[in-house]
Amino acid sequence: MEKIKTIKLAEVFDKQISGRSAVNAVFSELNGVHHLILDFSDIQFISRSAAHQLISCVEQVQQERISVELPFQSQEVAEMLRKVKASIKNPKKLATYVEFLTFSSEKEMDDFLLSY
Fold it and tell me: Is the alpha carbon torsion for 55, 58, 64, 69 positive or negative?
């Protein structure tokens, strides 16, 4: 018989999920579980790092043959998870050019800043 575990995330995190360690705690007690339901009811926010960790943990448990459902996601949570999944699929970062400025005096720096 299949053991199903449902976790109502709002009971664990209140209305927001922030941080990787918080997500890890949810995935720590899965002995004997074959199907995991992470109920997002009342969760209004998930940080980028928590979303990344959630996606990584879901992928890891799926490799261990545990199916995972993520029902009742708010639009904001769903959008963050979508963006993080997209960034994982295309991790290439664009080169960033940073111009360093040097000033010979505080007045020169003030003049530069005031020109903007």
Answer: negative
More confident residue, 37 or 88: 37
Instruction: Report yes or no: 19 and 50 within 8 Å, Cβ to Cβ.
Output: yes
The answer to whether 35 and 62 are in contact (CB under 8 A) is no
* Rg of the chain on CA atoms, in Å: 21
CB environment 66-88: b (16+ within 10 A), e (fewer): bebebebbbeebeebbeebeeee
Nearest to 82, CA basis, from 35, 39, 46: 46
φ/ψ region of 103 (left if φ > 0, alpha if ψ in -120 to 50, else beta) reads: beta
pLDDT value of residue 1: 45
- Ranges of beta strands (E only) in the chain are 4-8, 16-17, 35-39, 45-46, 67-69
Over range 48-72, report the average pLDDT. Answer: 96
